[in-house]
Amino acid sequence: MTSQTLSSTPAGSASTRKPARRGAARGDGAWPWVFVLPLLTGIGVFFIWPMIQTAYYSFTEWGVFGGTTFIGIENYARLFADPRLYASLGNTLIYTAVVLLGIPIAVYLASLLNLPGLRFASFYRVLFFLPYVAMPTAVAIVWRIIFNGDFGILNYTLSLVGIDGPYWISTPGTAMFAVAIVGLWSSLGFSMIILASGLKNIPPELYEAAELDGATRWRQFRSVTVPLLTPSIFFVTIITVISSFQLFDLLYAILGSTNPVLPKSMSLVYFFYNQGFVQNDKGYAAAIAIVIFVIIGLVTLLQFRLQKRWVNND
9 and 15 in contact (C-beta within 8 Å)? Predict the structure, then answer.
């Protein structure tokens, strides 16, 4: 009886038929590539190919009237012996460190705006986000007036308590910190929006359970909010570091091109701009661009390595 049942089973039944490949079953063919091709073309033309060209030009020397000459690693040897590279890297790190201080401030402000029953919360979010979308030049003009050493509102406020404020954007020791404060202020809104969306994903039952256990607001913030918000904090940290290493427009707009403090306050990207477009040393500037690219890549890789120790993905 069993043998007859087995022999009567069709050869192409579901129990013996091999599953078809997904691509063959759907008959997609080349259509997915057709739709993705414009995007891949744009990435290749506007991102990958310029990177390859920049890498090649970093090994060349440009003539006064155009044309390139291959010189090997001379640009890199010259660059790593140039003290301006390390000075600009130090200024960039100072700027990055100050701007990163805005992340804990943004976490605290986002948690305050997320309190239930808070009136005008949306208005406050828009108010904090406006500096991020404002034009850097307009922001710089306002802050240049604030930092003015003679009639700026900051020095005027300090004079009311007997403090003689310095010339903030004309003194080597304070110029970079002044620019960094503006960067912190302008990036605060973006960080708050990202962190506020992360707060929406935290179950309110956790706060209710913590309150039943006698946890204060501050204890709930430290033990519930911050640990569960670490993925959003990590994302904001990555974006902040990458954008900070690309500092140029804000620095240029605040300090100007004729400020005597610039040689001691320029960032890595300003160093690249000065060599490539002011000194017209494009091969050397290409080497600087490659070094900036490598530094950003290494810092980002380090952050991804360290995120396993402090980011809560549960």
Answer: yes
